[in-house]
Each structure stands twice: as C-alpha cells, then as structure tokens.
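Exercise 7.
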Amino acid sequence: MTPLVSRLSRLWAIMRKPRAAVGSGHRRQAASQERRQKHAKSNSQAKPSACDAGLARQPEEVVLQASVSPYHLFRDVAEVTAFRRSLLSWYDQEKRDLPWRRRAEDEVDPDRRAYAVWVSEVMLQQTQVATVINYYTGWMQKWPTLQDLASASLEEVNQLWAGLGYYSRGRRLQEGARKVVEELGGHMPRTAETLQQLLPGVGRYTAGAIASIAFGQATGVVDGNVARVLCRVRAIGADPSSTLVSQRLWGLAQQLVDPARPGDFNQAAMELGATVCTPQRPLCSRCPVQSLCRARQRVEREQLLASRSLSGNPDVEECGLLAGLWEFPSVTWEPSEQLQRKALLQELQRWAGPLPATRLRHLGEVFRVYQGQQPGTCKGSKRSQVSSPCSRKKPCMGQQVLDNFFRPHITTDASNLNSAAQ
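Solution. The predicted structure, written as tokens, is:
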C-alpha cells in the first residue's frame, strides 16, 4: 500500500467514525421489541435442523463477542453491589406515588397483585404516566380482579379505553384475563418465561415486569428508559434497538437486578430514566449512580480539556450518546483566510500525518464536492459547486472513496485504489 493510500485510509477511518445516541420513550422500545418477538415466534413454525441453527447463530455470536469491550461492562461484584445500593436508596426516597405501585405493595393475593401490575404495564406502553393515572384508577374500580375483566364485554373495554389509543392493547388484556380464568384456573403464571408463553400480548419486557414486581423473580427488564440509563452508565454508543446491542443490554439488566428486591430495582431503573436520566438535559447532579457513569466521567474529562483550550463545553447528550448519526470532518472557523488555512492544515496533519503545506489546494466543502461529481450536476446545474471534468470514464480515487461512503453497498476494488493513487 502506498503512503498516500495509507494516509487516506487513516483519514477515511476518521471520516466514517459514527456519532452515537440513545432514543427516548418510556415503554416504546420495549413494546416494539415485544411485537417483533411475537411476530417472529408466529412465523417460526418450521424448525431448522440443529446444524442449520448452529450455522445461523454462529456469525451473530462471534460478532457479539468481538464487539463487547470490558469498558462497557461492570468490572466486579463490588461495582454491581454499589450500583444496586445507590439506586435503591435513591428510589426509596424519591419514587413517585403512583396508584399501581400502591396496589402492588398493599395487595396480599399474588394473582390480584400480578393483575394490577399487568394492567399498568399495558397501559403505560406508548402512553405517558400522567395520562395513565386516571385511566388506571377507573379501570381498577370497574374491574378489580381478573374474573371481573374476564366477564366484561369488548364494548365495555373499548369504552373505558377510549382516549388511550391502540385499542388492541385493551383487547389483548381482556383475552389474557379470560385465558387465565378459563384455562389456568384463575392463577397467573409465576415466571417471566411462562407469562410470555401463555398470555396473549405479553412480551419479554411485560413478562419480566410482572414476574419481578408481583412474584419477586430476579429477572431484569429493559424498556426505553432502562436502555438509556444502561447505555449512559456504560458508555454504549451503538443503536440500542439493534439485536446485538439489545442482547447486551438485557444481559446487563440481568446482571444488575437485585435478587432481594427485584421489583423495586426494576422500577427504580425505570424511574431514574424517566425523571433524572432524561433524553434531553439529564439531571446528572441528582443521579444516584453518577460516580459509576462512564458517560459522566467522559463529560468531566472533556470539560476539563475544553476549559484549557477555551472551546465549547460538551455535555452528556453529546458524549457517546448519538448512535447511528454521522458527521463530516470539521475545523473551528477562523476570522481570516490565512488562519483558516493554517487550522485546516493542522487538522489534516493530525488525521493523516505530515503533509506538504505548499501542495495543498482547497477544492470546497466535502459533500458539495461530491455532489458536483455526480451525473447530471455539471451542465449548468446549480448543485455543481466545483468545476471538474464530467466526461471521465474512471473516477479519481477520492471520488471512489466518497462513492463508497455514500453508497456503502457498492464495493471498491482495492487494486483500483492503488493504481489510482499511483
């Protein structure tokens, strides 16, 4: 590989560096994942052979193992214990007084307790807490037990559900109640696994919430709020909705859940994401686990460096938390052209190593250069910002690199790159 190609490769690695983020929403991510899981389950009637299954799983498992750094994990038992203790202590002092929490705490009968949690979790899917409170109170007054709901008509259910949206949630809730009464002897399944298997509309998150809160099963849960908390605490910048990242987050949740108070721990993690570790402008100074948060540690380091260089201060929303987004290389704007050229040269040398200052030419902004090279943008097109020959049969190396960036599915022959560089 020639020195020029080597430098460009290093430059291209910088250009392709993604910015990272975590989405918001209280139960939206969990509800979406549950729908995908149910759909996948319904379409998997034909079971592959053991050999096929092994071949299908192997690449994903290899990628998962290769992509996980110890930096994104909890180091030892002491760190996990400290996280649990700090979070639960904060929750005991700061938790919101919500009707479903009161019912879960006061109800002695486990089936009625599980039913109360189930109703709240279904209502909270894609709906804000403030909206759910009145609906939940009215629902539990009208149908305080599974048997009451099972005997109601669908028209009654829809009438009370009006305004919450997504009427299928209420319908599946009633279908589940009827199944428990008619097929399961009036007793709710006791584990997350059986809840997910036996009850319609109950996915992994809802099953885990019911099992941990109502039955004390030590199983972790991941919804949108929990995903955001975990991604920030461990500085996970990848898309949390992707399969591999989702698996890792569920693994972290299972590692962290307190076996002595699993229901309280899961609610505490959701509460933290909803009230403190919010999508925008998180209240880091009030966070009980800020000393264990890698995103916060990075912010503090960046702020220290920024204070020395007099540049803008970053915040926790910008440090490793904007997954899936990309940005072009950029330099600080300078008041004069001479200073601007000097700043640009320094930035290029930082990326690609020593470069001869006398041979550099400014061709324009990166994306506008690319636009100007595209077919149909040269003959007087307003989009063409750079005068360049449009009749070339073979694009230059820089053009091939940009084509490969903006159209990742088009492969670029390495030998062509080398010959173009030479």
